[in-house]
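Work package 3, deliverable 3.1, input record:
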Amino acid sequence: MRKRSRIPGVYLGIILALMYIPILLVIIYSFNESRISSVWSGWSLRWYRELFRDRDIMEAMTNSLVLATVSSLSAAVIGTLAAVGMPKADLRSKGIIEYLSTLPIMIPEIILGMVFLVYFTLIKLPFGMVTLTVAHTSFCIPYVYMLVKARLVGIDKSYAEAAKDLGATEWNVFWDITLPLILPAITSGVLLAFAMSLDDVVISVFVTGVNTNTLPLKIYTQLKTGVTPKINALCTLMFGSTMLIVLLSSWFARNSVRRTERRNTNEEAPGIRNSVGLVR
Amino acid sequence: MKPEMKPGSPVAPHPEAKPEQTRTAFRRRIDASVVSVAPIYAFTLLFVVGPLIYMFVLSFLRRAETWGVLREFTWANYLNILEPIYLKTFWESLKLAGFTTLFVALVGYPFGYFMARLSAAWKRRMMLLLMIPFWTSSLIRLYGWIIIFRANGTLDKILMGIGVTNAPLKLLYTYSAVVVGMIYALVPFMIFAVYSSAEKLDWQLVEAARDLGATPWQAFATVSFKLTLPGLLSGVVLTFIPSMGLFFIADILGGNKVILVGNLIQEQLMKARNWPFAAALAVVLMVLTSIMIALYRKVSGVKDLEGLV
């Protein structure tokens, strides 16, 4: 046994601390009583109260929640159907469509945003919630699709075959066998998509309408022009909800793997977790 | 526009099949798989392929005098990019992206590498600890840096407190602030990429090198580093590409001092309203991106970005 150096541990600790400090500062300052944010004058929930009284922010919050719900659920339907149907579909173009459908999370966000802006103008979609929903659905689909696809690979095909031998229709097999098995993966994908939609700034900047605001857009304009302490409170709430959603999602993803009854669970889990983490 | 109806999808009946059976088999396939992929076909063609093709076409159209575009072919938008002022923007973007990638690699590579050497339980904890900042909205993290960098902000207070400086440093709205913001936003990509490749590393090879007399440093340079190179390379790609487009970091932390291709595109779209030029800029940016990925694939011989799929 060679002696273990202490350097790696210290290094990991320092970098992690640096990653957390900016976030912690925002959270701590959200409880600051003072109106001037660089002066600390004691703990208070004042800015949270004011936040909930701000009509503009509440409207933006409703918009954000509606947008994230509609886009992630649309993505759930499109992505799940595609992941289930693609392996069986006898279409020569499916490889290329699969590739193209993941482009919204592969190409730089700014390009996606601008492309949508000019295209929506061309096809005359009304800018606002409609365009936001279409744009967000486009980058939500790959999350659901990839997670469900990964999960389907792990499912024993003999279940479906047995059911078919016993006279089940294609629909029966999907509804009674495949769907329950992939449900954790779908849930995980939907939650991730929801979190991505709730956080998106770049694409929203381009496709929003004149009078439509989402929470990130509201924060973005304030960061550019000048922040009020309410924004600290808002950021803290958004941080809390994103964390909750992501943790739930990874819990479902792990659950989905565990149910796969694979011998090499340990090897499989990081793969799925990576795909959850990296694709952004 | 209905790909599922394409002729040529082979539905030739089995020679011995009765017509009745063939029809049900055919109907079944239409019912199940083709119908279930129809929505993604429709959505992708309408809202991914359509917009991308339109952007490409737009980049060759002439801008109308007042507003909108004329249906006239022109190379003018691409030639416009060759104007020194825009070339300089591209050069500045590439430089900043290069800087960012270098620092991200210096910080992220050891992190991913050390992380892969932890015990299974600690790996899981580390993953979770990394996920939290990674998933935190980039706006919140940027705001944190504003609090740190602004005049009389956290950093000024610490530095003045321990007597390093005696006046606020005015770090916000500088080039360094932008670089820090970029590194901070992108370092997790590098960590995950390096980690996923270092995790697969067979540590016995390193042990063997040590047993054969290599110093730890030699063992690292000849064995571990070479084997984790694909991870490092995919980390570089994953860092370099987004750092060309992260216009809002330059916007918020750099004031108006740092102009990147991303800022230029946004400005041309929203303010100057010169859409064909913005489209040409985007096409060039996408071509640069694709060249990067192609080069990466050629160098590393890996088909997918490590850890991405």
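Chain B has twelve helices and two strands.
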